[in-house]
């Protein structure tokens, strides 16, 4: 075989490889005109190599991030070195449809990209090559894992019955607000509330009805609060609400409004109509309160005072006072 035939054979082999490889190859000149557009790009863009050759890339695809891509290409040319981009920073360059059977629900093809300078024999850079890699499977797996981890994290902080913060997560918020108050001194209040005569409801109608009452209360609590507040299920039929940026009077008004809403509401469960009430204790944090547990105890004391005073009412605790020192 002559040298010319060997060269021709190698050339055709190279062209065949460029057309069949599962990587997008785009060669641009320094004016961003397309010089090479392989089979991968044809298949996913719907544009043939003949149709795009010598045409400006940004005219063909006006949705491309022109300023960003030009800046990347200019850096590659100036430094004569490769540049890389990841789908995690930019999900794709070309918005191609997703044709992967496993990740067919993805909104688009996720892409990694390499930009390489193409040097001539004299060392000058007159062209660059964009190499696009379909990483949809990897991206979707990573995103699914992150979503699952996020959901697990949420579940670990959430009470299953009410979808409010569970006790551990809520106490964490209580401690955080206590530390924030110590640092900045902004008003913050705490409401503890408990369903009145809940044992009678459970004994008379059964635990499923009792669960419906608890869920109903959680729903009313969520509807009555701001997105900056922290409601949680403290245990059984007892709930806690942390109210940042709220003084004792503001907390009392919120608690009273919540008490009235609950007293006028009804719960429909197992063809039964249930009415119930709650008692609420309110405590605002002061400089004299030494620990978050003391703040919680103040609100609990006010709650039990409301219970002993006849239930279905709000009691606000006076500011914390340390025990008197015996002489």
Describe this structure in words.
The chain is α+β, with helices and mostly antiparallel strands. It has 2 domains: 3-143, PAS domain (Beta-Lactamase); 159-316, 2-Layer Sandwich (Alpha-Beta Plaits), CATH 3.30.70.270. Helices cover 45% and strands 21% of the residues. The chain is built from 11 helices and 12 strands. It has helices spanning 3-20, 39-45, 49-52, 57-60, 66-79, 136-157, 167-184, 198-205, 207-224, 248-263, 292-308, and strands spanning 24-29, 34-37, 83-85, 111-119, 125-134, 188-195, 230-235, 238-244, 267-269, 272-274, 278-284, 314-316. The protein has a 5-stranded antiparallel β-sheet. A 5-stranded mixed β-sheet has the order 7-8-6-11-12, sandwiched between helices. Strands 9-10 form a two-stranded antiparallel ribbon. A hairpin with a 2-residue loop joins strand 9 and strand 10 (272-274). Helix 8 crosses helix 9 (207-224) and helix 9 packs across helix 10. The model is unreliable at 8-13 and 320-327 (pLDDT under 50). It catalyses: 2 GTP = 3',3'-c-di-GMP + 2 diphosphate. It is an enzyme of class 2 (transferase).
């Amino acid at each position: 075989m002559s040298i010319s035939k060997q060269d021709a054979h190698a050339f055709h082999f190279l062209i065949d490889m460029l057309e069949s490889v599962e990587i997008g190859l785009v060669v641009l000149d320094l004016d961003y005109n397309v010089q090479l557009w392989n089979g991968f790009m044809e298949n996913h863009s719907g544009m043939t190599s003949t149709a795009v050759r010598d045409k400006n890339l940004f005219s063909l695809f006006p949705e491309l991030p022109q300023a960003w891509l030009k800046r990347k290409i200019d850096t590659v040319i100036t430094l004569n070195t490769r540049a890389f981009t990841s789908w995690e920073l930019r999900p794709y360059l070309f918005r191609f449809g997703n044709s992967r059977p496993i990740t067919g629900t993805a909104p688009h093809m996720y892409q990694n990209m390499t930009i390489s300078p193409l040097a001539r024999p004299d060392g000058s850079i007159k062209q660059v090559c964009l190499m696009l890699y379909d990483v949809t499977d990897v991206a979707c797996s990573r995103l699914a894992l992150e979503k699952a981890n996020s959901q697990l994290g949420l579940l670990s902080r959430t009470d299953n019955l009410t979808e409010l913060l569970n006790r551990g997560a809520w106490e964490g918020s209580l401690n955080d607000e206590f530390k924030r108050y110590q640092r900045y001194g902004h008003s913050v209040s705490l409401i503890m509330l408990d369903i009145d005569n809940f044992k009678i409801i459970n004994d008379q109608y059964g635990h499923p009805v009792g669960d419906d009452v608890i869920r109903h209360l959680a729903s009313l609590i969520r509807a009555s609060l701001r997105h900056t507040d922290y409601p949680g299920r403290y245990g059984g039929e007892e709930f806690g609400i942390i109210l940042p940026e709220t003084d004792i009077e503001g907390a009392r008004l919120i608690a009273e409004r919540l008490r009235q809403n609950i007293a006028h509401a009804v719960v429909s469960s197992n063809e039964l109509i249930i009415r119930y009430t709650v008692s609420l204790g309110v405590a605002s944090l002061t400089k004299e309160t030494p620990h978050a547990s003391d703040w919680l105890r103040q609100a609990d004391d006010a709650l039990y005072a409301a219970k002993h005073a006849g239930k279905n009412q709000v009691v606000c605790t006076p500011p914390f006072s340390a025990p008197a020192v015996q002489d």
